[in-house]
Amino acid sequence: MANISKDFFIYLSKNKLLNEAAKKWGLKLGAARVVAGTDVPTMAESVKRLNAKGISCTVDHLGEFVYDRDEALEAKENCLAVLHKINEEKLDCHVSIKLTQVGLDVDYDFCLENMLDIMAVAKEYNIFVNIDMEDYAHYDQTIEILKELAKQYDNIGTVMQAYLFRTEEDMHDLRDLRLRLVKGAYKEDESVSYQTKEEIDENYLKLIKQRLLGNAFTSIATHDHRIINEVKQFVKDNHIAKESFEFQMLYGFRTGLQESLVGEGYQFCTYVPFGKDWYGYFMRRLAERPQNLNFLVKDMTLNEDGTVKKGPIIAGTALASFIAWRILRKK
């Protein structure tokens, strides 16, 4: 059932029609719990609240399905606005960027030009930039652009996904860069990725331990308390300084554990997504943890006082999407 749910939400995350409709709905369907608003000022206030608790942040101005130059340029300007805001407010924060948002699906060189513009401002403000890793179709180009940027800038890094077979080799190649280690949020073919949770978890821990024994700063992005506990024991046993790594979690998820890790003296960073284009991100979070559907259904159907919400169109749209998805799977 869990695999079916994951496939379903990944399917929904790629649905352009629902993505456009979601922009009109606003942060409904429970997304307000895991998306820090739709504009820069609201995001900044969310970051300030986390900073006050000793939590650093990485901000992602969400975007999906960018195939137009004007949209990519707008996304670049949005990212620059975030950098200006971080500098202006002196936030403990860096930025995460998807290359498809700034033009990778439009033109490689165009995307690189946009990233060079972003990196110039980020360097001026001494702000780190993390390139988010997307699906495998964009993997090689993402690595190529990363390496090109790293020739000029030292405030750049990316994400390594534990479910890919090639990650160990690529991680070694990028050993001098700051990296974020994740399990992986996309559905990839068995020819390039591990398919079971057990295999992915095993490789994830293997990669984490390799990085912790190296010299570059590492972000360990997981909500899995079992993995967190094993990392904590490994760090203790190998006398690894807490300053050489951080734990990361997503905004709105396991907030008690986030604060607990800070209280134990670990460096912690929260991934803070915001923007009108929240739909694809939210669906992938449900794909990662299908049990989050519980709060989705609750927010869809009930007001804060427990009364039933109006607006069955949203629920009907989701149901229709599910039916369509099941039909497509049978073909």
Q: What characteristics describe this protein?
A:
about 325 residues, alpha/beta, TIM Barrel, eight-stranded parallel β-barrel, 13 helices, disordered C terminus
Account of the protein in words:
- By secondary structure, the protein is α/β, with parallel strands linked by helices.
- The chain has 2 domains: 1-30 and 289-331, no CATH class; 36-277, TIM Barrel (Alpha-Beta Barrel).
- It contains 13 helices and 8 strands.
- The protein has an 8-stranded parallel β-barrel, surrounded by 6 helices.
- Helix 4 (69-89) runs parallel beside helix 5, helix 5 (108-124) packs across helix 6 (139-150) and helix 8 (197-212) runs parallel beside helix 9.
- The longest helix has 21 residues, at 69-89.
- It starts with a helix and ends with a helix.
- The relative contact order is 0.16.
Short description:
With 331 residues, this protein is of the alpha/beta class.
Overall number of strands: 8
What CATH architecture of the largest domain do you see? Alpha-Beta Barrel
CATH topology of the largest domain: TIM Barrel
Q: How large a portion of the residues is in β-strands, by DSSP E?
A: 5-15%
Domain count: 2
Please state how the strands of the largest beta sheet are arranged side by side: 1-2-3-4-5-6-7-8
Class from secondary-structure proportions? alpha/beta
The number of distinct helices, counting runs of at least 4 residues, comes to 13
Report the principal-axis shape.
globular
Distance between the termini: 20 Å
Radius of gyration: 19 Å
The low-pLDDT segments are 311-331
Give the SSE order as H and E letters: HHHEHEHEHEHEHEHEHEHHH
Average pLDDT confidence is 84
Helix fraction by DSSP (H/I, runs of at least 4): 40-55%
CATH class of the largest domain: Alpha Beta
- Biggest sheet layout: 8 strands, parallel, barrel
